[in-house]
Design a protein that fits this description.
282 residues, alpha/beta, Elongation Factor Tu (Ef-tu), domain 3, Rossmann fold, 2 domains, 5-stranded parallel beta sheet, 6 helices, 30% strand, binds flavin-adenine dinucleotide
């Protein structure tokens, strides 16, 4: 497979050949992989929760088999499952000057991406399907694969998620304006995943460390929260069942307009990302 920077110009997303430049832990459960490569100067983000596809070699292989070009997905699906590259969804934590940071949760040896991230070393290769800064829409503020979008009249926001959403939530929090009013809830596996940072005065972050047996404390914390009056906005991401419950609470119990709630099922307990998707709840 070869990826060039010119084959699909001016499309929102393009495949980029990437090489691992650095690997370092960020907290107890995540590892930051910094990718580099000649073409990565063209990677951009259209929002702080910019999703990308990461293609990885299958276990024991180094080749990454992924078709490129406009019909890449159909051709990828046609490849035998045991031959095509592993494809997973991740968030750009940062993109700068030919480098892209992606924070991978190490959730054990049970998934190919987590397994890869647990053993990755500089020099390893991957392919990223990521926003191409040359796409003209980005200059006009178009978002592609980025969902965080509080309406201009939102007086407050709730931002909540688990460790898979930590990269996106970190980006969201860093981009909040100085006068933002936000309640941020983060559920992580370990105390060592906390990241303390300077915050605008109206922003309050609540860290929750998951209990034994995967017991979630996130819903209880959001339920117990006192939220300001006025029109709000919510961005929720993490395990699919968890975010559905959070959204139901905000819409049904709190009366938040469902159009003002983004909810992203970032993973599903007991199911690989390769499993067929359930239709989204409306
Ligand atoms: C828009 C979007 C953005 C995302 N951004 C990130 C990101 O920046 N960083 C990140 O780490 N993840 C992120 N994710 C989640 C990531 O895609 C999934 O966790 C993915 O399933 C990991 O692939 P895998 O090969 O390790 O496991 P899979 O092969 O998909 O799953 C194998 C098993 O592991 C379980 N599993 C999967 N993820 C987890 C987990 N986090 N904790 C415990 N068990 C798990 C599954 O339920 C399954 O039983 C994002 C997902 C989406 C949709």
């Amino acid at each position: 497979m070869s990826v060039t920077t010119t084959e699909v110009e001016a499309q929102p997303f393009r495949h980029f050949a990437a090489e691992v430049l650095a690997v370092r832990p960020v907290g107890a459960s995540l590892v930051r992989v910094t990718f580099g490569g000649a073409g990565l100067r063209d990677v951009t983000t259209s929002g702080p929760d910019q999703r990308i596809k990461v293609f990885l070699p299958r276990a024991g292989e180094t080749d990454i088999r992924v078709p490129t070009g406009p019909d890449w997905y159909a051709r990828y699906r046609e490849l035998p499952e045991d031959e095509r590259a592993v494809m997973r969804t991740y968030t750009i934590r940062a993109a700068r000057d030919g480098e892209v940071d992606v924070d991978f949760v190490l959730h054990g040896d049970v998934g190919p991406a987590s397994r890869w991230a647990g053993g990755v070393t500089p020099g390893d290769r991957a392919v990223l399907l990521a926003p191409d800064r040359r796409y003209p829409g980005y200059r006009d503020g178009e978002r592609v694969g980025a969902d965080y979008a509080p309406p201009p009249d939102a007086a407050w926001q709730v931002v909540a998620g688990d460790e898979t959403a930590l990269p996106a939530i970190s980006g969201i929090v860093e981009a909040l304006p100085a006068d933002a009013v936000a309640r941020v809830f983060l559920e992580v596996p370990a105390e060592g995943d906390r990241v303390d940072r300077a915050l605008p005065p109206g922003v309050e972050v609540t860290w929750l460390v998951r209990g034994p047996g995967d017991a979630s404390a996130l819903t209880a914390a959001v339920r117990a929260a006192t939220l300001p009056d006025g029109p709000g906005y919510a961005w929720l991401a993490g395990e699919a069942g968890l975010v559905r419950e959070l959204r139901r609470h905000l819409v049904t119990d709190r009366g938040l307009d469902r159009r003002r709630v983004y909810f992203g099922g970032y993973w599903r307990r007991g199911q690989s990302e390769d499993a067929p998707q359930e239709p989204a709840e409306d």
